[in-house]
Amino acid sequence: MIKINNLEIENVKRVKAVRIMPTTSGLTVIGGKNGQGKTSVLDAIAWALGGNKFQPSQPQRTDSTIPPKIHIELSNGLVAERAGKNSSLKVIDPSGNKVGQKLLDSFIDQLALNLPKFMEASSAEKGKTLLQIIGVGDKLAKFDLQEQQLFNRRTEIGRIADQKKKYAKEMTFYEGVPKEPVSASELIRQQQEILARNGENARKRANLSHYAEKANSLHAQIEELQRQYDEAQNNLEIAQKSALDLHNESTEELEKNITEIDTLNLKIRTNLDREKAEIDAEGYAKQYEDLTKEIETVRQDRTNLLDKADLPLPELTVQSGNLIYKNQQWDCMSASEQLKVATAIVRKLNPECGFVLMDKLEQMDSDTLQEFGAWLEQEGLQAIATRVSTSANECSIIIEDGYVKGEDMPLSAAPETKSEKKTWKAGSF
């Protein structure tokens, strides 16, 4: 990874003359009060390495007639300079050959020079950046769209199922009525069948009387008409046995049903409507369960996709398009976690770029600052940051009135009267 070995800045914005040798890995904090030139140092680095799009609107220090000068030495041996009236860029490789901005762009990521651009982006934009880096953005977008469509459909089905179930529960139900509507003609047919059977019973009773009379008339002729008598006696016995088992069927219930058929059918239809509503509710409930399983499958597919992706940090992922770290969205992360995530993503964008610029770290307390610095060292990353502080315990250097506090100014940046000129001590860092 390529890092900044040394940098010298003169007459850029609020900076008068500053020379810094950042730590190879970890956090180099530029401290000082407001308006002393801390952010100007970061702006100068971005301008020198990132191209003219990073040029400040007023790059030259307002109370100086000397043009801006920036000199940066990188760990790969390249030297980037801006100097002179036009502050044109000059890049020299280790062999002394002149190269250009294109070579710098090949290993210096734009977000490394402008981390606030990433920090201030929306959670969805951060998530999109991460997905683009790991190359699964299009696939994950399809999963997200599929899940959203299924979720919307399931919500609709669930609402209908609840309505159907509530509607069925509120409907009237009659016990002891047939399942299907009853026809009046059917009841009349049943009544006629009963009447026919009753008529047959009457005929059989008439036969009983006939055979009894005949048996009495033939009694005197027993010997001659024994055969006839025996036959008649036999028929009598049969008729007697059949008659004992015969009972007339009542048509009262059918007559009542015929009279009340409309009321009965109303009850039947009411029961059928309720049964249908219950069946509908069960059907929609089943659809809801099926959609839930589909959603779980899509979510698992998304999880599997991200598990296989080469993410910048463990426990860093994207859910519903939003950046998630340790199960927390961006606004719920600590300041240290936010910087850690942003730095890791910047490194992933261009693994050759081993440094990042950070402004306004005063939001971090000392413990958080130390924790973040330790993580940078562990990852072999270099961060140059600013902080509103004059504490030597919190800051690597302190800028005061455009200079590094405690260091003599260089000759070129000294006040423009001979009597006030000073020299810059060599080897200060």
Automatic annotation (TrEMBL):
In Swiss-Prot or TrEMBL terms, this protein is called DNA repair exonuclease SbcCD ATPase subunit
* Secretion signal, residue range per the UniProt entry: none
Q: Drop me one GO molecular function for this one.
A: exonuclease activity
Write out the coiled-coil annotation as residue ranges: 208-249, 274-308
Domain spans labelled Rad50/SbcC-type AAA:
7-267
Origin: domain of life: Bacteria
* Origin species: Pectinatus haikarae
| Keyword annotations of the record | Coiled coil, Exonuclease, Hydrolase, Nuclease
UniProt-listed InterPro entries: P-loop_NTPase, Rad50/SbcC_AAA
